[in-house]
Amino acid sequence: RNKAFESFKVQKEMSLGLSMDHLSKIFRVCGNDDQLSLRVEAGQETIFLAFEDEKAKTDKLAELKLMELEQEPLGIGDMDYDATIKMPCAEFQKMTRDLGQIGETVTIRVSKDSVRFSVTGDLGTVEIVQRPRNEGSDSGADRVTNPKDF
């Protein structure tokens, strides 16, 4: 199987809390050929989703409230947690739909070499790790960049 991201860039590692139910509803606006970009700015309570279809010349934008994560505070000083992730919408939609069968809240952790999507529910815990695709891959335009480039 190909790696999920062609390329991506992240400034700092971050964790996000998303409602699987709300995310599923937002994904109803995306098409199979759309590319998804995610943007979160440090200190904000929302995530921005952009669905782009270059062939149809169509952009769809959505804003989703983030949920507060129930976790121990990390012993990290003041840092900006900015990242944008681009990956095929259909792939992200299937992944979140599958994770939604396990629990209601997905946690997304972004590091310099991967993006981890995890969910915990009554059945247990599932984690999906996505890594950048090879540079020469033509199987999608997935990448993570600085959200200010969004």
Description:
This protein has 150 residues and is mainly β. It has a single domain, classed as DNA Polymerase III, subunit A, domain 2 (DNA Polymerase III, Chain A, domain 2). It contains 2 helices and 10 strands, in the order E-E-H-E-E-E-E-H-E-E-E-E. Strand 7 (105-110) and strand 8 (115-121) form a beta hairpin. It is globular and about 45 Å long.
Poorly predicted runs of 5 or more residues: 136-150
Major sheet size, sense and barrel closure: 6 strands, antiparallel
How much is the radius of gyration in Å? 15 Å
- Named CATH topology: DNA Polymerase III, Chain A, domain 2
Number of E strands: 10
CATH architecture descriptor name? Roll
The backbone outline, from C-alpha atoms, is globular
Whole-number count of domains: 1
What's the overall average pLDDT, rounded? 77
Q: Class in CATH?
A: Alpha Beta
Beta percentage is: 35-45%
Kindly name the structural category: mainly beta
CATH superfamily: DNA Polymerase III, subunit A, domain 2
End-to-end CA span: 28 Å
Helix content: 10-25%
Q: What is the N-to-C order of secondary-structure elements (H for helix, E for strand)?
A: EEHEEEEHEEEE
Number of helices: 2
